[in-house]
Amino acid sequence: MSLIVKSKQKSFGGTQGVYTHQSASTQCEMELSVYLPEKADTEKCPVIYYLSGLTCTQENVTVKSGFQKYANEAGLIVVCPDTSPRGTDYPGENDSYDFGSGAGFYLNATQAPWSTSYRMYDYVVNELTDLINNNFPVIQEKCGIFGHSMGGHGALTIGLKNPEKFKSISAFSPIVAPSQCPWGEKAFSGYLGKDKEAWKNYDATQLIQNGHRSANNILIDQGTADDFLTEQLKPELFQQACEQHGQPLTLRMQPGYDHSYYFIASFMKDHISFHQKNLHQ
Ligand SMILES: N[C@@H](CCC(=O)N[C@@H](CS)C(=O)NCC(=O)O)C(=O)O
């Protein structure tokens, strides 16, 4: 499986690259960004995966969040994949911003036609991590995951289900209970079918209730002026589950911040430091 370099640019001492590769999981070409800190020129470094939200490609966080400065200082490799397969052209794939293209929800779809290529769970957990481990100087056992909104849901569910692989989890304004909000209900009905039993496997709040754990404290930042807070995000549901089931969580409600990359950029430094500490850099 080979990586094609689309661009490489020096940034804050390290190198920001954009790559494409042919994916077996999603049956199409996938684009991703990989930031290598200067330290990676001479030694292996820990790696963190950032999963983006609805409508995003790898590019939003790569150009808007300013993570490169902090990642270089912390000596962390940062990998940012796309949010769905592209160009499969299923009916309805491009009709709405919260389903289909740009809205893969980091799951393996079971419903036709999506089940053929909407396999973002397998893509991130297995194929992408193998690709990165084989092509970049990473310390494989020092690996973390974070994300925003739909990508926060991805980071929480993937991290909780694979704690031996992803040892550190954080999120910005995550969808914490997709079975209980319109974005999740629409996506899960379409990709997983109407039977809500199948949804539990991809719902962070349910996963905590069913015994899944991260070895480390989980960090969540959430803006109080986020338009999606009460209808879609509902961080209190995850907080209650963590309290009841003994999962350490730091939920920080950030006064006046919205759902945008201005918010993410404001707290990116804290999230990079959090992962650096958890991964014992
Ligand atoms: N387009 C949607 C919102 C989509 C949205 O807010 N997407 C977030 C992730 S859930 C995002 O990161 N957008 C891209 C950006 O801000 O660069 C709407 O207008 O209601």
From TrEMBL:
* Top-rank taxon, per record: Bacteria
**Signal sequence, renumbered to the chain:** none
Q: Which GO terms describe its cellular component?
A: cytosol
Extract the SUPFAM superfamilies matched here. Answer: alpha/beta-Hydrolases (SSF53474)
- GO MF term set: carboxylic ester hydrolase activity; S-formylglutathione hydrolase activity
Q: Which UniProt keywords apply?
A: Hydrolase, Serine esterase
Q: What is its EC number?
A: 3.1.2.12
Top EC group: hydrolase
Q: Does the keyword Hydrolase apply?
A: yes
Q: Where is the active site?
A: 149 (charge relay system), 226 (charge relay system), 259 (charge relay system)
Instruction: Give any Pfam family that matches.
Output: Esterase
TM regions (residue ranges): none
Q: Which reaction does it catalyse?
A: S-formylglutathione + H2O = formate + glutathione + H(+)
Please state which protein family the record places this protein in: Belongs to the esterase D family.
The entry's function note states: Serine hydrolase involved in the detoxification of formaldehyde.
In Swiss-Prot or TrEMBL terms, this protein is called S-formylglutathione hydrolase
Gene giving rise to this polypeptide: fghA
